[in-house]
Amino acid sequence: MIHPEDACQEESLSYRDSGVDIDLGNRLVENIKPLVQGTFRPGVLQGIGGFGALFELPVDRYRSPVLVSGTDGVGTKLKLATLLERHDSIGIDLVAMCVNDILTCGAEPLYFMDYLATGKLDADQAEQVIRGIAEGCTMAGCALAGGETAEMPGMYRPGDYDLAGFAVGVVEKSRIIEPRQVRPGNLIIGLESSGPHSNGYSLIRHLIDRSGTNLDEPLAGSTLAELLISPTRIYVEPVLNLLKRCRATAICHITGGGMIDNVPRVLPEGLCARISRSAWTVPPIFSWIQERGNIRDNEMLRTFNCGIGMIVCIAPADLDTALDSLSGSGERPVILGEIVEADHSPIEFTD
Question: How confident is the model at residue 5 (pLDDT cuts 50, 70, 90)?
Fold first, then answer.
């Protein structure tokens, strides 16, 4: 214990002297409260500010509700956002990476929580990020139930920050989508991506640095910067609408690992996804990446989504209903191929 007389002889330090401004953090919380409250949905039992988020399960709509959770980050796309000073949509990426994952089980997202860490809190920057998170939650139909902002001097370079988040959803136990439901003859439907989403940015940044590319370079009626910073698509609404009308046998989120690593995760042993490379048009941003980096086809398909961000497998009898539902939700679904029996590989590409 420091005695009062000792304190008088030495300079009194505060937490702010070490680089942590608690008052600034508290003001940020007050500023974002309207953003957070705008995402609330039935089930939220309290606003932000507590030690834990409370959410009441919608048991009136489920006989045997099963909770589904997913967590993720945004990866090195954050470096691009910092370089471009564009922090307004990176929060959408964060929400999308989590809710799209739990959607593959057939789950309806209920609530989301975030974690933002930085060396020195920039309140304007943080508010932009959280505004994007709130927008993403609104798009996904889930509540932003809480979060954490950590100011950690010495851990990050000036201007840098990191993001992580997790989503919790619910699905009826009898409606859980799992690999054993997939059958030979099932058709594979692809949903378009908005670009690289949140994967492959370490490679993208490497080839840009190596080539000295100007991010303002025109490309496909836009600029390279705009195409690369475009937020990850959130597929919740179109996929949940589809599941109300017919049964999907598999849903796959095409994230890190591309089609090559992700599609096998939703297939039982002995089945293969046979996908036609000519079934969809690869967006210009991926062609640019491949050409500038002299990247082989297989590496592209294992690193990027190459224009397809979500895959849904459906029984042939449900195809017309599925396509009608997806189109009605604003999607432009593409029939990529079908599920076949095979013991050599879980995914196969044809011309």
Answer: low
- Edge-to-edge strands, sheet with 161-172: 65-73, 161-172, 108-118, 143-151
pLDDT of the residue at 218: 97
Instruction: Look at residue 2 in the predicted model and tell me its pLDDT.
Output: 53
274: nearest Cα among 193, 342, 322, 323? 342
Residue-level pLDDT at 204:
97
Query: Which one-letter amino acid corresponds to residue 73?
Result: G
Q: Give the Cα separation of 218 and 195 in Å (integer).
A: 16
b/e code 115-154 from CB counts within 10 Å (16+ = b) = bbbbbbbbeebbbbbbbbbbbbbbbbbbbbbbbebebeee
Tell me how crowded residue 159 is: count the other CB atoms within 10 A of its CB: 13
Q: What is the CB-side half-sphere exposure of residue 50 using CA atoms within 13 A?
A: 10
Nearest to 342 by CA among 263, 247, 256: 263
| Residue 216 tokens, joined | 């303002």
- Predicted structure pTM score: 0.94
In whole angstroms, what is the distance from residue 318 CA to residue 249 CA?
11
